[in-house]
Design a protein that fits this description.
By secondary structure, the protein is an all-alpha fold. It contains eight helices and no strands.
Length: 198
């Protein structure tokens, strides 16, 4: 049931406006993705505090927003762990905003990823070439902006390419630091138990 949950961007964004959040929903999603990608995890209480700090809310998160944040955390983690690769970046829909706002949201997401990756404190020492390259790409994406010379069609195509690239890059980092060690013993146990039951 949890797998089928999806959180509409505009609803989440409206909730953030209601509580006076200064941080962006895309940036928060990027932060959490970067944090989880290192193999680090948060308790619900820790996540609520981190979300509050990132969003720079004037007051503590109200109960309904805390529930939304709990859902959000599970949704992002499930998306990253899902083998069907249905993880997506949390960006505003093209119907709801200008192309420039989508580009800004991608930049915020990318900056968030880098901040979350660093905030986990899990990654120390030298990074492998692939991870270092991904982080350099996110650094470049965090500074992307439209110029007056860009045609809308070319800009839209470029945005889609960047979003797809960012998605694959995030999953690459997640897979590098989140080896599925925990799942393997379970499969072995089940196989071992079956003969004993018969």
């Amino acid at each position: 049931m949890q797998q089928n949950i999806s959180i509409p961007f505009h609803q989440f964004a409206n909730a953030m406006v209601t509580i006076g959040a200064l941080g962006s929903p895309s940036g928060l999603h990027g932060w959490l993705t970067g944090y989880l990608s290192t193999g680090a995890r948060l308790t619900d209480a820790q996540w609520q505090t981190e979300a509050e700090n990132y969003l720079e809310t004037p007051e503590a998160l109200p109960k309904p927003v805390q529930s939304l944040m709990t859902l959000f955390y599970g949704w992002v983690l499930k998306g990253l762990e899902n083998e069907s690769m249905n993880f997506t970046l949390f960006l505003p829909e093209s119907d709801d905003c200008e192309l420039s706002q989508q580009v800004d949201a991608l930049a915020q997401w990318s900056k968030g990823f880098l901040d979350g990756f660093g905030a986990s404190g899990k990654v120390t020492g030298k990074l492998n070439d692939e991870t270092r390259e991904v982080l350099q790409h996110f650094d470049a994406f965090s500074q992307v902006e439209l110029t007056a010379d860009d045609s809308p069609e070319d800009s839209e195509d470029l945005l889609q390419e960047l979003v797809e690239h960012a998605k694959v890059a995030a999953l690459t980092v997640f897979l590098a630091f989140n080896e599925p060690d925990v799942a393997e013993p379970k499969i072995i146990d089940e196989d071992q138990q079956k003969p004993q039951l018969h």
